[in-house]
Amino acid sequence: MIGEKPKGVLAHVALAYPALMLGVFFVIPFGMMVAVSFFHREPGGFYITGFELTNYRNLYTALFGRTLLFSLFIAGISAAVCVSLGFPFTYFITRMRRRVQVVWLVFLMSVLSLSEVIIGFAWSLLLSRTAGLSNLLVWLGIMDKPVAWYPGFAALLFGICYLAFPYTVLVLYPPLSRLDPALPEASLTLGASPLKTFFTVIVSSLRNAIVAAFVMVFVFTLGVYLLPQILGRPHHWTLSVLITDQAIYQTNMPMAASMAIFFMVVSLLLVFLTMVIGKRKRIET
Amino acid sequence: MSKTLRILFLGIILFLLCGPLIVVGGVSLNAKKRLFFPPDGVSLRWYHELLTESSWLIPVQNSLTIATTSSLIALSIALPLAYFLWRYRVFYARALFTLGISPFILPPVITALGFLSFWVTVGFYGKMIATIISHAIFFVTLPLVTVSLGFESIDHEIVEAAETMGADSGTVFRTVIFPMIRPYMISGYAFAFVLSLNEYIVAYMVAGFTVETLPIKIFNSLRYGYTPVMASVTVVFVLLAALIFGLIGRFGDLPKLLGAMNPEETK
Q1: Could you tell me how many CB contacts below 8 A there are between chain A and chain B?
Q2: Assuming Cys at both sites, which of A71, A269, B39, B154 could form a disulfide with A238, CB separation 3.0 to 4.6 Å?
């Protein structure tokens, strides 16, 4: 019975409900957003249906360009940091006993599920003058008086990496836990140092998984919305902030929609490009 | 890699992951309405306020209502889809599966904006039902992935045996398939539940000014007047997530749910 072709209308009943729900509440909203991006903005109201490219033409501003570049830039850095720390970390986790693994995974899932607002709040406390890390350094005699380390670029980067790190580990977890343990063992038996084994055997045999993880984490961090507002200064605001501002506070839905579409196209293009480069590298080697 | 180096590395990561949570935990115990760390005196009054002040109680209720119902809807969408995909490998079921995965992969602001334009047009903008359905769609990925994993783990021979003994497909589903995928359904529900509790941007875009959820409430208090209640909510959230995932880890197979092979398969 498994794997056969469904026969008749009755067999499709099971599929009708999910298809309907996803169609009505995901495809239609998405399509509407695409449509709205071509509509005319009605100041004070919402929008007038029509077809014009004005909203896309209006994207060509210094603010939008700078925000887009900054969003891509900080997502790129955080993804690089997360993957380079997360890869060895995940490797160590997967080599632990299963019971110990579960404890780590529960901990990571708990951190992962935390809202951006909670992470932003926690880091703003940690970096603040009254409750922060600098108090500890004062107490230890390293610093003279407590200081505030946020808002700023470094604080934002820390916050984003904290947000994305558990996600990175979960993305890397399946390929790493399926890695054949005989591979590194063979390398060690043949006399390679543990460090050399790690880089030449483990990293290189999982290069595709690393590229894929980088892309996933990159797209994940592109979506940060609250952290830039909590931990960053206004010029650190990302495209998500700009889009929400247009939609909610400027009530300019057509503009917000065109920004969102452009944002999506750029991020999908980058993802595609990274995948292509990753594939080509594998063919060369 | 040498053992001390490995332990040092794991220790540093653990410290970095715990650090903010320790500070928040300390701040939540402050005796006065100040955000000091180490706390200035110890009291549980901010936990008490969380459970008694209506300005916090209403968001707590909103968040719990939205999370319980939306993850139930998400599961109800995921279950028949995963079942269909497992039973009949047809391209349109696979396409629907991809569709179910995509809200999770796109930057959330894009999905949120789509929801906003939809709910404004149909006239449900600012209503709780809009947040519930939006969350259900937004998080359908989680039960979809876990329940599909559950179906994959069913041995086809068991199903065939039941059929040979004369069970019709309804009976097979009720007595054979359902008990086997139930743990996966529960974990899919739990994942969606926890993430819905913590979700901000969709809830904000769809009904942020009328249906205040806990993350929205925390962000608003972050902007307009700090209070240690924010810290106590955070502690409750972390403990709740740890409890739920701890239960999954205790009674389910967490490594497998997250994509590891079974121990006997790793050969």
Answers
A1: 269
A2: A71
Q: Which helix (H) or strand (E) holds A40?
A: strand A40-41
Q: Do A15 and B93 touch (CB under 8 A)?
A: yes
Asked if B146 and B83 touch (Cβ cutoff 8 Å), the reply is no
Is the CB of residue A152 less than 8 Å away from at least one CB of chain B? no
Q: What is the pLDDT of residues B172-227, one digit of tens each?
A: 888 888 888 888 898 889 889 988 988 999 999 998 889 999 999 988 888 877 78
pTM over cut 0.80: yes
Domain of A148 in residue numbering reads as 61-284
Q: Does residue A141 contact residue A167 with C-beta atoms inside 8 Å?
A: no
Domain count of chain A?
Answer: 1
Query: Does residue A33 form part of some domain?
Result: no
**Contact at CB, A121 and B103, closer than 8 angstroms:** no
Contact B37 A131 (CB under 8 A): yes
CA distance A219 to chain B (A): 7
Distance between CA atoms of residues B200 and B192, nearest Å: 14
Q: What is the total residue count of chain B?
A: 267
Answer whether B187's CB lies under 8 Å from B74's CB.
no
Looking at the DSSP bridge assignments, the partners of residue A47 are A41
DSSP string, A138-197: HHTTS-SS-----SSHHHHHHHHHHHHHHHHHHHHHHHHHTS-THHHHHHHHTT--HHHH
Per residue in B72-126, pLDDT (tens digit) is 999 999 999 998 888 887 888 888 898 888 887 788 899 999 999 899 889 898 9
DSSP annotation of A39 reads S
Nearest CA in chain B to A131: B37
For residue A66, is it left (φ>0), alpha (ψ between -120 and 50) or beta? alpha
Domain B65-260 has CATH 1.10.3720.10: yes
What value of ipTM does the predicted structure carry? 0.82
